[in-house]
Amino acid sequence: MSHCALCNSEDATAYEVSPRPDTVMLCQTCRTGLEEGPTDGPHWQCLNEAIWSTEPAVQVLAYRLLKGLPEAPWARDVLDIAYLEPDVLSWAEAGLANEDAEDAIVHVDCNGAVLAAGDTVTLIKDLAVKGAGFTAKRGTAVRKIALVPDNAAQIEGRVEGQRIVILTQFVKKA
C-alpha cells in the first residue's frame, strides 16, 4: 500500500508534477487540492513538513499548495521561512504561471518598478502602524515581502517582528 508524499495517508496514486515528468504518490485530498485549489483546513498542516522534504518534486507540490492558501497566515509564514533551490523554485513557479496568467494583478512600487514575492523594499515615509503601537521609520528595509493576491496596492512584510500590510505607494524596491 502506498502512502501520500505530502500527508502520509494511505491509498495514494501517482501524480505527475508538471512541467517535468517526475511523479509523486498523492492521496485524493492532496490531488484535489492541487487540481481545484486548496481551502484552509487542518489537513494542510502537513505542508509544514512537506516543504522541507529532500525530494524536489514534493517540495514543488508543497510550495504550490501553500501559494494556494494566501488567506491563511500560517501558510504565508511557512513560505516566508521555506528555502527552495533556485531550479526547484523556478519549477514550482512554472506550474503556477499557467494558472490565471491573463488576470494577474501587478504590484508596483512608488517608482513604477514591478514587485515580486520575496523582494526587499524600503519605506519612503514614516508609517504609523495601527494596532501595533509603533511607527515604521522611513528607510526601514522590509525583506521577503508577500504580495496581497487580490489588491495591487498592498503588500505584506515584517517590521519590528510584526507582520503588517503596507501600501505600495510608500515603498521603493531595494
Descriptive report:
Residues 108-174 form the Protein YjdM C-terminal domain. This is PhnA domain-containing protein. It comes from Stappia taiwanensis. InterPro entries: YjdM_C (IPR013988). By secondary structure, the protein is an alpha+beta fold. It has 5 helices and 10 strands. Strands 6-3-10 form a 3-stranded antiparallel β-sheet, with no helix packed on it. The termini are far apart.
Q: What's this, in brief?
A:
This protein has 174 residues and is α+β, with helices and mostly antiparallel strands. The protein is 26% helix and 21% strand. It contains five helices and ten strands, in the order ββαααααββββββββ.
> Could you tell me how far the N terminus lies from the C terminus, measured between alpha carbons in angstroms?
50 Å
How many domains, in number, for the residues?
2
The strands making up the biggest β-sheet line up spatially as 6-3-10
- Helix-strand pattern, N to C? EEHHHHHEEEEEEEE
The stretches of 5 or more residues where confidence is low (pLDDT under 50) are none
Number of helices: 5
Total strands: 10
Helical residues, percent: 25-40%
Salient structural properties:
YjdM_C; 26% helix; 2 domains; three-stranded antiparallel beta sheet; 174 residues; SH3 type barrels; 5 helices; 10 strands; alpha+beta; 21% strand; elongated; single chain
Layout of strands and helices, then pairs:
Blueprint (H helix, E strand, L loop, with lengths): L12 E4 L6 E4 L1 H9 L10 H4 L5 H12 L5 H9 L4 H12 L23 E3 L3 E3 L4 E3 L4 E2 L3 E2 L6 E6 L2 E6 L3 E3 L1
Antiparallel strand pairs: 1-2, 3-6, 3-10, 4-5, 7-8, 8-9
Helix pairs in contact: 3-5
